[in-house]
Design a protein that fits this description.
Blueprint: H1 2-22, H2 28-42, H3 50-77, H4 82-95, H5 99-117, H6 122-159
Helix pairs in contact: 1-2, 1-6, 2-3, 2-6, 3-4, 3-6, 4-5, 5-6
C-alpha cells in the first residue's frame, strides 16, 4: 500500500510539474524531476538507475536555462536595446508578486519602458515588449517538450 501512495505522489509531482512548465506560478521542471527521482527511489533505483537520472537531470538543466534566456533572447531578436533587456528581467521579477497576469504584463511593460528609457520610440518599445512575450511563450513550449522528454527517458528505463 505504501508503494501505491508513493507512486501516486510521484505521478502527482510529475503532472503538477508538467502543468508548471506552462503556468509560471509553479516550479515545473524541478517538480517533474522530483517526481521522477521519487519514482526511481521507490524500487531502490533498480529499474531507473544513475544514467537515466543523469540524463533527466541534464534535460532539466537545459530546460531551466531555456526558461532563463528565452524572454531576453525574444526581446533581443525584436530589436530591444540593453535597457529593454534589463527592463524585461525587472518586469518579470516585479510581475512575480502579481500572479499570472503580472508575469505576462511585467516583462512586456519592463521591456517597453526600458526601450523608451534607452531612447527608443514607442513603436520599438512595443516590438521589444512583444519580443519578450514571444520569448516567454516559446520558452514555455520548449520547457514543456524537455519535461516530456524527461518523462519518456524515465518511462523507457522503467519498462526495459
Amino acid at each position: 500500500m505504501t508503494d501505491v501512495l508513493l507512486w501516486i505522489t510521484a505521478a502527482g509531482l510529475v503532472i503538477t510539474g508538467l502543468a508548471g512548465t506552462l503556468l509560471p506560478l509553479l516550479p515545473g521542471v524541478p517538480l517533474v524531476f522530483l517526481g521522477l527521482l521519487l519514482g526511481a527511489w521507490i524500487d531502490g533505483f533498480a529499474k531507473v538507475g544513475l544514467w537515466p537520472l543523469l540524463l533527466c537531470g541534464a534535460l532539466a538543466a537545459v530546460a531551466l536555462a531555456v526558461d532563463f534566456f528565452a524572454s531576453v533572447e525574444g526581446a533581443r531578436r525584436f530589436g530591444a536595446g540593453r535597457l529593454a533587456l534589463i527592463g524585461a528581467g525587472a518586469g518579470l521579477a516585479a510581475g512575480l508578486f502579481f500572479g499570472l497576469p503580472g508575469m505576462v504584463v511585467g516583462p512586456f511593460a519592463g521591456a517597453a519602458l526600458g526601450q523608451i528609457a534607452g531612447g527608443g520610440s514607442v513603436k520599438s518599445a512595443g516590438r521589444a515588449g512583444l519580443g519578450t512575450l514571444a520569448g516567454l511563450v516559446l520558452g514555455s513550449a520548449a520547457k514543456f517538450v524537455l519535461a516530456l522528454a524527461m518523462v519518456v527517458v524515465f518511462a523507457a528505463a522503467l519498462v526495459s
